[in-house]
Amino acid sequence: MISQNEAQLLDVEEFEDIIKEDLTDAVDHGIVVSNLAYLLSQELGMDEEFCYDMAIAGMLHDIGKLKLSKYLYGRRKDSLRIEEMKYVRMHSTYSYDILKEKDFNEKILEAIYHHHENYDGSGYPDNLKGSSIPWGARILRTCDVFAALISSRPYRRAFDINMAMELMIDEVKNFDMEIFLAFQRVIHSEAFEKVKNFTMNANKKALDKSIVNYYNQL
Ligand SMILES: [Fe+2]
Predict the structure, then answer these.
(1) How many CB atoms lie within 10 A of CB 5?
(2) How many whole angstroms from 76 Cα to the centroid of ligand 1?
(3) Which architecture characterizes domain 4-217 according to CATH?
(4) What is the pLDDT of residue 4?
(5) Ranges of the chain with pLDDT below 70
């Protein structure tokens, strides 16, 4: 566990900034995954109701991360890296718990709960493998990884579309091949342009902000 001392590394103002930053990133990421999951479901021939469910699941899949904000206190001091922390692995369960209370349907809930399962069984929370992973979770997994790769993160710049696809091909064992091939078609479709533009704008804003932060520190 994180000690009280570590949890007080940042003052209130800095903490508020981090929360704001996290929320903006979370909303932007949700919008991208939501749109991709909708388009991918359509490409896979799913009915409108399923596509809509996946759009909702895409928007809300990481909502449990908000519960982890209290573990982010040390981030700017480089003492903790959220991606390396085991608590992160709890977020899909937290997302499920939060949304179950709100009566979201089972398709949405199971897709969210399992959205970090890998096709080869190396994911979490249940190490499910292949077809035992709910179909919706396999769709989310593919969209989520791609959306993360093409977005700027506090610790790295965004990858371009081709590089993101190459990185995913290197790790293709994580994905359902039928879904992955359909996803490649989505990326080359006209409908994807809108998602791409949204992501580029979000990345540009993040870059502008980091330049402002850099000059503020001089
Ligand atoms: Fe996630």
Answers:
(1) 7
(2) 22
(3) Orthogonal Bundle (1.10)
(4) 45
(5) 1-21, 69-85, 209-218
Q: How far apart are CA 157 and CA 139, in angstroms?
A: 25
pLDDT of residue 205: 82
Ligand 1 centre to CA of 92 (Å) is 6
Phi/psi at 178 (5° precision):
-60, -45
Q: Using the mean position of ligand 1's atoms as its centre, give its distance from the Cα of residue 215 in Å.
A: 32
Token pair listed for 210: 């980091």
- Let me know how many helices (H) and strands (E) the chain has, helices first: 9, 0
Q: What is the pLDDT of residue 14?
A: 67
The Cα diameter of the chain in Å comes to: 55
CA distances to 85, 116, 125, 144 from 105, rounded to whole Å, are: 30, 19, 20, 20
